[in-house]
Amino acid sequence: MNKQEKINTYLNNLNNYLQKNSKKILVTLILIYVIVFSVLCLYKYFTYNYIGIDLAIFNQVFYNFSSGNFFDLTIHPHSYLGDHFALIIPLLLPFYFLLKSPVTLLIMQTLFLALGAWPLYLIARRKLSKNLSLIICFFYLTHLFIHNINTYEFHIIPLAIPLLLFLFYFYKKENFTLYILFLLFCLTVREDVALVIFMFGILALIERKKWYWSLIPIILSIGWFIFAMKMTGQISGYGQYKFIRYYGWLGDDIKSIILAAISHPWTVIKHIFSLSNISFLIGLFLPFLFLPLLKPKYILPGILIILQILFLTAAGPLALEIHYVALIIPFFFISLIYSIKKIYTKGSKYKLIRILNRNKEIIIVILILAGLYSSLFMGPLFYLTKNTLNYTDAKKEINIRKYFTSKIPKKAAVATSFHFLPHLSSRQNIYSLHYQYLGKKQYSNIDYSIPSDVDYLLFDMNDFLYYQFLYQEYDENNIAGASRIRKLIKENNFHLTDYIDRYFLYTKKSNSLPPLYEKDVDLPNQINSINKKFKAIELKGYTAEKTKKYPIKDYNYKILPLSLYWKCLNKTEFDYQIKIHFTSKNSSFEENYPLSALYPTHDWEKSEIIKVNYQFLIPEEFENSKYQIALSVYRAQGNMGLNKSKIFRPQIRQIDKFGKVNLLEVNPH
């Protein structure tokens, strides 16, 4: 047997094996996906990197619902039904009762997304061979958009993906009973699923189904959508659907948006075909090699969702990185199936299809390779896997975060930072400090303040850096944000009771630490003078205490207490940041901090002296060696964005450096 014959024999045996064991292989692929992405999501959770607040919101809703407080939510100051009309939540509670934790939600979302491969296989098998059907399912389970949705946050909307695929399957099988059943399930997921169901009815009209296949979904979807929109507006107290603010470039309410769209069509056209939206559309089709366009009819159920994204004030390519495309991609995969069927059918009257037919195996190979490449190098899979394997590198900081969360009693009311919200959300009352910073309810001009019965305030200092990128420096919310945090602390008689590096805890106990900052102080006699000017401010000097041990679990962390004395030379509108440099003979390390978190530089008054007290965590490699500490002052500009691991982080556009100064030398011996 020559080499070619051996290859042919191998390929035939492989083909026979795949044909014979296609269902087992599908189950195996689904299980592998569930295991891999459960691990990655749990890594992200246990390293405190779900900071988009959605996981915390949903976990609190599930927790309160499981305790008999239906749809109760305090992160937003109204019932969750004021956000979205997600009546599917009670149906999911049996899963949540197994473990009342965000962990359950993350695994549940992973499971639902993985199970989408099952109805997709059933749909594909009606048109394609077993092998091609498996390839479609493999492409789905390794797809960039599925991975993005899975690892970003927890949302209810991705749970609609397998339901919509089953809906289409029973639609094609003409099983009207199960078609209606899944249609109703889909409507319970969220109010905007009604837009998909409406277009399902239009699809049935185009395909000339019997009247009830189209009329029932059209009537149900219109009625449900109007009812849900009105209910959310009433429950939220906004008087209208709160997320209408996403379309604020057209108007403040539905009526003004419709009138503006009709009266200014050119403005609408320019917005829809903006560079950002064109990038979104290219990014949407490119991972599918534009093949769904060969059967555009089956994209139709998702067309209103595509338009919904194009009409947003600002979304663009970011929409591809989060859950916004969840209601679109089932129909791209369905269109892909029918497009491949078209390519594999001989004798087409279209030249393009005939060319594709002659190269069909190459197209399938390119599709698989393009899918693998995009998922590995454009999505979170590679980067989260790499971070997961290096978990020990982050373990000590994670222990500090665990330490602070452990100090909050399970039933206590707490207001906290982005990183801590999910881990503290299994309680009746939890609040997000960023709404106190804003002073407004979400997407509203309604004033908001965290209730006075809150018992604990837990901060991550990095949040004050995030606020500067989330809200523009000149924005009224940003200008007065820190003062609203200070007001909350003062009016509710909070005291600083624990402080390590970037993390600090306020309680109403009287045995407190020195404050984070002090205004209008006198320079002490024992100050180490610096007198270094950094544009509008001057570092007068510092005082330092001896390094001290801070035992957490089985490790003694080392802390350097350092007080810096600043003078405001001129009133500034900007917030300055500092970078602390540790250097020794053999290594170096840098860390960024707000210059003064609770009392930022834009609040400083001319000529006042401000003392800022820091508790810098000494990096492990410097704990037993002599090292020097230097300080840089700068102003960073940018915005918040998703990194490769689907974690929100500052995206720096510009850094204005104002100088660097050596502070002190530390010899731990």
Structural class: alpha+beta
User: How many structural domains does the protein architecture include?
Assistant: 3
- Categorize the overall geometry: globular
Give me the count of strands.
Answer: 15
Q: Largest sheet at a glance?
A: 6 strands, antiparallel
Q: Residue share in helices?
A: 40-55%
Rg, rounded, reads: 28 Å
> Oligomer, anyone?
single chain
Approximately how much beta-strand content do the residues carry? 15-25%
Query: How far do the termini sit from each other?
Result: 76 Å
Record keyword descriptors for this entry:
Immunoglobulin-like, 5-stranded mixed sheet, globular, 17% strand, 6-stranded antiparallel sheet, 3 domains, 15 strands, single chain
How would you characterize this protein structure?
With 669 residues, the protein is of the alpha+beta class. The protein folds into three domains: 20-239 and 273-387, no CATH class; 391-507, no CATH class; 524-666, Immunoglobulin-like (Sandwich). It has helices spanning 3-20, 22-46, 54-66, 89-96, 102-115, 117-125, 130-141, 144-152, 160-173, 176-189, 193-206, 211-236, 254-263, 265-272, 275-285, 303-310, 318-321, 329-344, 351-358, 360-377, 381-389, 395-406, 433-438, 462-470, 476-491, and strands at residues 414-416, 430-432, 456-460, 495-500, 503-507, 517-519, 528-534, 537-544, 548-552, 555-568, 577-583, 588-594, 609-617, 627-642, 648-666. The strands form three sheets. Strands 6, 7, 8, 9, 10 and 13 form a six-stranded antiparallel β-sheet that branches. It has a five-stranded mixed β-sheet with strand order 2-1-3-5-4. Strand 7 (528-534) and strand 8 form a beta hairpin. The chain is globular and about 95 Å long. The N and C termini lie far apart (76 Å). The mean pLDDT is 90.
